[in-house]
Amino acid sequence: MIGYVTLGTNDLARGAKFYDAIAAELGVGRMMEFETFIAWGAPGGAPGIGLTKPFDGQSATVGNGVMVALEAKDPAQVDRLHALALANGGTCEGPPGPRGESFYAAYFRDPDGNKLNAFLMTGSGD
């Protein structure tokens, strides 16, 4: 049902560095690029993520309660995505680890303050 998610940025070049690293770890690259917009994913594949300067020319702001969840293939990839986020200008919102019995996740913000997480439904809490 979801085709892609778009997040706002005030510095597309800075944001692109962050999302290039995250996308590469997830096995995808840029699928669309314009002067004010870049999208990562695979055409016809799982939902993608886009980063854009707002169309109205105003500053991009962070939505309160808004978060994009990136599904990982295993706990080690959750750990790598969190580390990549921090290494590319992101900030920690919760280190990698189990959350409950069947969910493993890490939370972080991109350089513009947009909240994301990397997660895995484990079924066993490991």
Give a structural overview.
The chain is built from 2 helices and 8 strands, in the order βαββββαβββ. The protein is an alpha/beta fold. The protein has one domain: 2,3-Dihydroxybiphenyl 1,2-Dioxygenase, domain 1 (Roll). A 4-stranded mixed β-sheet has the order 1-4-3-2, covered by helices on one side. A 4-stranded mixed β-sheet has the order 5-8-7-6, with helices on one face. Helix 1 (12-25) packs antiparallel against helix 2 (75-87).
Query: Which CATH first-tier class would you pick?
Result: Alpha Beta
First-last Cα distance:
29 Å
What is the N-to-C succession of helices and strands? EHEEEEHEEE
Question: Helix segment count?
Answer: 2
Adjacency order of strands in the biggest sheet? 1-4-3-2
| Shape type | globular
Proportion of residues in helical segments: 10-25%
Using the coordinates shown, work out and report the CATH topology: 2,3-Dihydroxybiphenyl 1,2-Dioxygenase, domain 1
Report the structural category: alpha/beta
Low-pLDDT runs of 5+ residues are none
Number of domains: 1
User: Average pLDDT value?
Assistant: 94
Number of strand elements? 8
Using only C-alpha atoms, the radius of gyration works out to 14 Å
CATH superfamily annotation: 2,3-Dihydroxybiphenyl 1,2-Dioxygenase, domain 1
Major sheet, described briefly? 4 strands, mixed
